[in-house]
Every structure is written in C-alpha cells, then in structure tokens.
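Input record (one chain):
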Amino acid sequence: MRFAIAGGCVLLMRCLSVLSGATLLFTSTVAAAAAQQGDLDAILRRFHELYAAGNYPAALVEAQKLEAGVKARFGVSNANYGIALYNLAEVYWRQGKYADAERLYKRTLAIYEKALGKDHTDVADTLNNLGLVYGDQGKYAEAQGVYKRALAIYEKARSANPASMANTLHNLAIVYIEQAKYAEAEGLYKHALAIKERALGTDNPDVAKTLSNLADVYVEQAKYAEAEGYYKRALAIKEKTLGTDHLAVAYSLIGLANVYFRQARYAAAEGLYKRALAIREKGLGMDHPDVARNLMSLAGVYVEQGKHADAEGLLRRALAIYEKAFGPDHPDVATALANLAVSFHKQGKDAEAEGFDKRALAIREKALGADHPDVANTLNNLAVIYVEEGKYTEAERFHKRALAIREKTLGADHWYVAHSLNNLALLYKNQGKYAEAEGLYKRALVIQEKTYGRDHPDVAQSLNDLARDV
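The corresponding structure, as predicted from the sequence alone:
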C-alpha cells in the first residue's frame, strides 16, 4: 500500500484557464440597466474572491446568483451567459461534481462557438477546462482531443495569451504522464518553457512553474538529481521575485520535499513540508483545501517514520477540512480516507484500515465511476489487506478487478499495470501457485524495464521478488 502524496498545484495539478474579462461584457448607457450591470459585476467579484479563498460552497451560491441574473438580463444565447456558466462549472469541478461541470462547459462551448466563432480564444479556454474534467474522470483520450484543439486555436490566434497556451501544454503533458508517456510529456514542458522564457524572461515566476513541471516528469522516472536541480532553480526564482513567504514558494518547497520523500530523506522532506505548511496557513487560512493537501504530505513523512499518532492527527484534520469544503462525498475526502487506511495498515490495524478503504471506495465509485484508476488504487489496497488476513479469494477478486481497470484505462504497458501484476503474483506465491506467480512477475518486469530502464529501483525490486518467490 502506497501513501498518496498531496503535492502543490505544479505537481500533477492541472491549470485552470480563467477568462480574460474580469467583468461581464455588456455596457449600457441606460441608468437602470447600468445599475443592474453593476450588480452583476459585484456578484462576479464576490464569486472570484470566495473561489480564490477556497470557500467553494459560498462561491457556488454567488455563481448561481450570477447565472440567474445574467440569464434574466441577457438571455441564454449571449456570450455573457457563457461566462456565468463557465464560472458555475469551475465550482462544480472543484467540488468533484464532474458530470455537472462537463455539462456546463459543453453548454458554454456551444454558446461561445456561436457568439464568438469557433476559433476564439475563449473557446480554447473552455476546451482547456473541459479537458480538466475529462482528465479527472480518467477519460484521457477525450482530454487529449480537446487540449489539442485548444492548442490549435491558440497557435492560430495572434492575440492569444502565451500563458494560456503554456497552461494547455502543461495539461496535455499531465495526460501523457498519467499514461506513463514521459518523453511526450517532457517535450511539451520544454515547449512551454521556451514560450514562457521568450515572452517573460528567464527569471519570471511563471517560468519557475514550468521548471517545476519538468521536475515532475523526472520524479516520475526516479531521476531525482535532475528533478532536484529544476525544483531548486524554480524555488530560487520565486524567492527572489516574490519573497520567501509567497504562496508560490510553498508549491516549490513541496515539490522539492517530494523528491526527498521518494529518496527516504525524511528529515529533509519534513522541514520543507513544515515551511510550506506555515506559508499556506498564513496566506490561505487554516481551513483551506491546499492546507489539507500539505497536511497529508507531512503525514506521509510521519507514517514512514512510524510516528503514527502524529500522522493520524494531521490526516484527521485534513479530512475535516475536505469534508467542510467539499462535503462527505468528494474524491479528496476519499484520498484522505485512503491515507488513513495506509497509516492504520502499517500499524497492523487492518480492521480499521479496511473500514477507511471501503468508505473511500464507495466515494470514488460514486464520484468517478466504477472504472476510474483511483478506484483501482483502492481495490488494490483492500486486496493487500485481504492477503495479509489470509482472505485469498477476496484478494484475488479485488486484484483482478484493479488489473482490469488499469489495463482498460491506462493501457497494458503502464507501470500501474506492472504494480497490479506484482501484487497478484505475490498472492499466488502465498498460495503455492509458483508457475502462475512466475509468469506475472516476468510480465511486470518487462513493463518496468520498458518504462523506466534497467536501472530503476522498481526494476530491482521486481528482480528481487522473482528470485525470492519463484
């Protein structure tokens, strides 16, 4: 069972496109209409303030007011109504209501295409955000398609914001990372970096963000020296240009801490996570969802150090923040529960761990669908518990279901598939089915060598498993 590290927004976190207009588009010379327009702009400002603060329930209320007001003022075919739907979709996305977000982004897209034209940059922004929703649902082919269409629009439009194009390149790269297509992801990040350096200079915070993105790719390939170098360069830029206590600095601190965590350099990781946490608590407040993500990262260090009481306190606090911000059925709530399960499992408290994982599974199946990769992760963790309890029938069923989901959604050569194959092989070894175990270990080894090369730690572990167990 693996602890899910919750990184900053540059760490496999997709970039939302924000429409360039800070106010609604309509301007009237009639006093009464102008006053009504002012009311709508005030609602829009309140929405952005609440959204930025992570108060999504209150932001949803303002977004719903805006939608009703714009609908009454302009009708449902006006570009202003598209803005209102766009903002409403953003909140639903943050709350994990992906079906609602997808529906509203598609309505926005239709409005913009008709009112502004199919090659308008607002169409591209909407396509980018629709890609976010697809990605979070594990619909990688659909996400890839809308991102590529958005990029084509940005490339064609002379007025396109370079940052918008770079953000979409970043989001498309994440789709490739999710599918273990690291070379493609690296190429997109380098393209984004070139765009930003040309437009902004080499010491701009947005350039630092893309440097961190490149580091993400190297972390996934266990190229920790390269990752550390990029994170440190990004951190230096942000501290120089923004100050040492800026929220953007916290993101780079977490990225660097994640490198140290992967290398089992727990003391170094702990110090950076704590510094990032202090920045976020000061800048965002104690109950912001980004604070919860930081708490889970720090808890991961404590779990690995055997400080389970400390870890449990942080994880329960993160869980409470998520439940307050999003409600009890959000995917981030499931992540906190899954991490609690890991902590309890490592203490040998498998009954409690099973309870947390079952609740996480129910949330993920409801919010993400039965075939989502995160569902497979929870099935895998439950199966590990069942193996240790000697419940081999249940364990085999869950491992096979997790394997099937991963092969379907990620492809037969993804490293998560190798993970499932290794776990299923271990189950067969425990049952004395050595021939079946050997075949699975060998298939996993082929995938890992193809993905990472022969010198990766996971390859070494698989070779060790094969020699020991078969």
